[in-house]
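README, section 4: Worked example with a bound small molecule

Sections 1 through 3 covered apo chains. Here we extend the same pipeline to holo records, where the ligand is supplied as SMILES alongside the sequence. The molecule in this example is magnesium ion. Nothing else about the input changes; the structure line simply encodes the ligand pose together with the chain.
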Amino acid sequence: MKQVEKPQIDPQVALRWYKDMIYIRTFEEQTERSFRRGKIGGYLHVYTGQEAVVTAFLEASRPDDIMFTGYRDHPHPLLRGSDPGAIMAELYGKVTGVCKGKGGSMHIFDVSRGFYGGYGVIGGHIPLAVGAAYALRYQNTDRVCLCFFGDGAMNSGAFHEPINMAGLWGHDGTCPVVFIIENNLYAMGTSVKRSSAVTNLASRFDQYAIPNEQVDGMDIFAVHGVASRAIDEARRTGRPYAVEALTYRFSGHGAADLFQPYREKTEVESWRQRDPIRMLEGRLRADGHLTDGAIAEIQAAADRMVEEAVKFAEASPEPPAEELYTDIYADA
Ligand SMILES: Cc1ncc(C[n+]2csc(CCOP(=O)(O)OP(=O)(O)O)c2C)c(N)n1
Ligand SMILES: [Mg+2]
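The generated complex, written as structure tokens:
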């Protein structure tokens, strides 16, 4: 892996990252509790462990840039400012949800924040993101598209066709998309080693003429450095760029994956030593920018926001039956 420079970041900015990561982890931990209490139905996949990736990429992007991801999709809109109550209500299937309770955990969508979903079909959003990136240039803007996906998605057919087109359109400067591979080592219970002929996933983009690099996905400073470079490059040139973030998920694949027979507890423990939140916390503490008191306050503020979101979701009504017939067809 290429060593990245660690620029001196303004401590106020690093503190904001810290608060953001605490916020999204607290939200995710609450969703797991709500799922176990039967309040959230269907599927639930949380982002715990991977926080540095989305936080750094969103920090490096502009608010008018757009993004797509798979089904670990709660943090993206939350960090772009979507109302946490509306996101929680969506998971609860309530009418006040950001998609009126019809999407659920895997299909969050908030176009007002540039968030184009939230997809349950593995790799299915990659062609959409490539098309959207093309549209951004076609409309003469300098906005870019961020497309997050997992290591498993790279072995789907839906990966190769759009990546080829992105590389091709990139020759003309008409595809400003940044592909963010979140390599958390597993696709459900299957490890990268057991499923990928080439395990340096970034290098696969060489075949499509797309510049690429790997980064330590647990170190937010490193991710932010690479993210800034990749996004600036895509914006400036209109060409795609790929970043493989080496990360890890601390929870099971989904809420039903309790026993995790495909990995050793010691492996999870050793990755927890590199928890992205604790790593940033350690650095901020060592530099004198964070005290025990401040940590407790930040956690309490996140707890309050999430508690409010739960109260709102619980108090909200179910969608009425007529809602089954709305939002089915787009108005031409
Ligand atoms: C087209 C398709 N095939 C299979 C599945 C079943 N499936 C759900 S999650 C998953 C693994 C995806 O792993 P990865 O892309 O690494 O994402 P992660 O869960 O690690 O974030 C699979 C195969 C699916 N949802 N869609
Ligand atoms: Mg994975």
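What to look for in the output: The first helix runs from residue 11 to 36. Residues 150-152, 184, 186-187 surround magnesium ion (ligand 2) (CB under 6 Å).

Section 5 describes how to batch many such records.
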